[in-house]
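Deliverable D5.2: sample structural annotation.
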Amino acid sequence: MLFKIFNYQNNIISRYLLRNLIVFLFAIFFVISLLVFGNQFVLTVQESVEHGIPLMELLPLIGYNMLRDIPIILTLSIFLSIIISISQLYKNSEAVVMNSIGLAEKNFINFIQPIVILFFILIFCLTIFAVPWAKQQKSLAEDQTVNASEFSFISEGKFESFKDGEIIFYAAESLFNDIEDEQNMEEIFIYSRGNGKPIIVLASEAQKYTDYQSKSVYLRLKDGIRYEGLPGENNINILNFDLYDLEIVSGEVQKSITNFSEIEEMSSIDLLSDGSLLANAEMQWRFSQPISILLLSVFGVFLGKSSPRTGKGINLIIGIVVFMLYNNGLLVAKNSIESGQLNPAIGMWGIHLFLFLFLVLLYQFREGKFTLFIDKIVFFNIKEKTHVKLTK
């Protein structure tokens, strides 16, 4: 079967179609990658400048992000390149000539199968083996550089917000202690609300530390004063303190983030043996990406069919919308499995099955067999009713 598929490359028409497909594929992949990875690089440089982290220490993170995002970029690229390649045949009236000699959409699907199968194997290997490894290495790199340097945490001379804006924090000076894994600050200002009243805390020193049992992040304030209420009110409370611990990041939030990240970093074999909802959802997501390239490649052939009078880019817009709906449907199913709202037996397989059935019906309709199928159903219904009347 596999040799039969690759024998289509010996056909002149198939080689012509594959050549155009590969050219469009590399062009689209380059443009999308430039947008995605370029944006990631700019954000990384911005964070590096703001927090004083050497850029060379952050470049590996960009590489791991690239490896993580390549499967979905490849899937979108080959989907759009198929639409453009088939559409170009119809725009140049080449497909009309091919149709006159008996070549239809079924043949186009066979012609592109070699490259689709190659990319299916590539994306399968990436999602099952390479992407989990990249996420694991990224997590280790962040622990060594990002977290160690407080990348995206407390910075001196800037107002920082925590707990969704409930706490506003400012430190005039900040010093990170590499040995003790703690951060020391001076001249502290904190604004928050408690029981509907504003709370202002001033302290000469503060130390950020993590409670390794609860996973919560605290600020230990020293030699300060705490005001509760507005100035001038009779019920204002003033508290002088030597030590005062303030939770700025909840341990429950930290644990939930850790659980999700650990699942994404696990190998596929470990996920299969785990059996939890999170592991089940992650495993289905990894299988879904290579499966999607098979379904979308067939859909791309159907979307590529157009007339010379059809507006340019319409098929591409429809293709992008289809890709977004399909991918978002998979993400919704993944989240539903993780939260226990969707049975893993249905899970993302239901999304794939729906698209598969839709493609089958669309193919029957394009080939003119759909109405014949409907007529057969009507014929059997009429025959059954006639048989009932005769028996009566």
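Annotation notes: Residues 146-152 have pLDDT under 50 and may be disordered. Residues 216 and 253 are 8 Å apart (CA to CA).
The annotation will be released with the project's public dataset once the embargo ends.
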